[in-house]
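Hi R.,

Here are the chain sequences for the assembly we discussed:
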Amino acid sequence: MSEMMADNENGRIGGELLSVDNITLRFGGVKALTDISFNINKGEIRSIIGPNGAGKSSMLNVINGFYKPQEGTIRFKGKNVNMKPDLAAKSGIARTFQNIALFKGMSTLDNIMTGRMLKMKAGFLSQAIYWGRAQKEELENRAFVEEIIDFLEIQSIRKTPVGRLPYGLQKRVELARALAMEPELLLLDEPMAGMNLEEKEDMSRYIIDVNEYFGTTIALIEHDMGVVMDLSDRVVVLDYGCKLADGSPDEVSSNQAVIDAYLGVAH
Amino acid sequence: MEALNALFVTPFVEIFDAPWFFMEVLTGGLMAGVMYSLVALGFVLIFKASGVFNFAQGVMVLFAALNFVGLMDAGVPMILAGIITIAIMVAVAFAIERFVLRPLVNQEHIILFMATIGVAYFLEGVGEMIWGTDVRPLNVGIPDDVFFVGDAMIQQSDLFAAVVAGFLVVVLALFFHYTRTGRALRAVADDHQAALSIGIPLNHIWVIVWSVAGFVALVTGIMWGSKLGVQFSLSVIALKALPVLILGGFTSIPGAIVGGLIIGAGEKVAEVYWGGFFGGAIEEWFAYILALAFLFFRPQGLFGEKIIERV
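And here is the predicted structure of the full complex:
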C-alpha cells in the first residue's frame, strides 16, 4: 500500500485514460455483461478477475471493439468511442489474446514488424519499388523492433517461424507485437495462462518493466490470484457478468462477496 | 520388352540424336509454362491474402480481356483501354469486397469458395451480356516473328510473355516480402482477428488484393488473348493453373512461376517424346498426373509454407 502511495507521488499514475460506463452485452438471450462500470487511470496496472465465464474476455473484447455492447459507452482519452478493432488499434489500444493470435507462418521479426504497420506511412508506389521514404521507414521501424526484441530477450528466435516456438515464447512474441504498436493502453488476456512457475515469473517481470519503462497503461485478465495481487494497482472483480468489487488488491481480497464467489458459500 | 524400350530408351536416344530440336521443344514448353504461371499468380495472390481459393480467377482473366478488347474494337486507344479496364477491375474488387466478402467474414473457407463460384458465373454472364460471345482477335503489337538460337527456333511472342511474367513476379515477390502493405496482406492471410487487433483494416486489404489480382488477370488475358483470341474458353485455362499451384504451393509467388515452368516444359517434352507411346494428346492430362505425384510426396508444394501443426 505504501508503495502505491509512493507511485502516486512520483506521478506514475495520472488521470483517467479509459472509462467503461454501464456496459451491457447480450448474445441472444444470454447476458454476458450486465451494467458494468469502472475506469482505468493513466499509468496503472488494472486487473480484471473472476471465475470462468464471468465475462472478463467479453469485457476486453468490448473495449477494443470486437464486440458491440447493446447498452453503455466506452470513453477513451475523454472521447466517446464506438470502435471497430482496427480503429481501436489506431487510437492507441493494443492487445494480446487468450489463445495466442500470431501470424504462424511468419518469423518472430516479421510478426513484431506487423505491429509497426500504423507507424509507417509510405505510399503504395514507394513501397512497391522500395525506395525513398519506404526504405527509410522500414529501417527506422526495424531499429525500434530490435529494441523490443532486446527488451523481451527473444534475440535468439528472431528468424524462427512462430508456429514452431513453444507456447511460453509465443506468448512473449505476442506481447512484443503489441508493444511494437507503442500503445497507450495495453490489454492482456490471460498472459500467463498455461505457463509454468518460472515462465509466469518472467512474464510478471516483463509486465512490470513495460509499465515502468514505457509508462504503458495495462489492463490485465488473469486467473492466478497471487500474480494479480502482486502486480495490480487496482482490481475489478466480475462474476456472472456483474461487477462484484472494485478496489486495491487488499480491499478486494478481503471482500466477502469476492471470497464467496471464488471459494463458494455453504447454502 | 518393346514397351519398356519405347518408354525408357528410344525417347532418350532421340533427345541425344537431335539436341537442338530438344532445346526447341524445351524452350517452347518453358514459354508456355510462363503463361500458366501468369494464371496461377492470380490465384496465389488471393489465396495468400484471404485464404480463399478464388474460383473466379479464370473468369476474371476473360472478363478483363473482354473489356479490353471490346473497348479497343470500339475505337478506344490501347493505353486508354488498358487504364479503363484496370479501373473496371478495381471496381469489381470493391464490389466483391462489399457484397461478397464482407457479409461472409469469419465464415468457413469452403463457403467463401462457393461464393467465388457465384462470382465466376456472374462475371461471365455480365461479360457475355455486354460484349457478346464472338471470338475477338486481339493485337496489341506483341512481336510475332521467330528467331534462331543455334538450330532451335524461338517465337518472339513467347519470349515477350516470359519477360512480362518475369517482371510481374519480381515486383510482386518483393512487394509481398519487404513492404508494409505486403506484410499486412500476409498478416490478414494468417489470422483475421490478430490482424484487426494491430490495426489492419481487413476491408482495404481485400480490395487491394482483389484489385492486384484483377490487374494480373488483365495482363494474363492480354497475353493469352493475343495468342488464342479473346473467347470464352479463356476462362478454362484456369484449370491448367491447378496443377501449377499444387506443384508450386498455393502461397508462393516464386512457386507459381517454377511450377508453371515445370508443367509447361514437362508436358511439351512428354508429348513430343512419349506421346506416341500413349497414342498422343498426353499434353491434356500429363500436368494432372504430375500434380498427383507431387501430392503424395510434398503436399505443401515446392515452395509452399511448411505445414506446422502441434498435437
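The domain at 1-92+183-267 of chain A is CATH 3.40.50.300 (Rossmann fold). The interface with chain B takes residues 64, 66, 84-90, 94-95, 97, 101-106, 110, 113-118, 120, 122, 124, 127-128, 130, 134, 137-138, 161, 163-164, 177-178, 181 of chain A (CB under 8 Å).

Let me know if anything looks off.

Best,
T.
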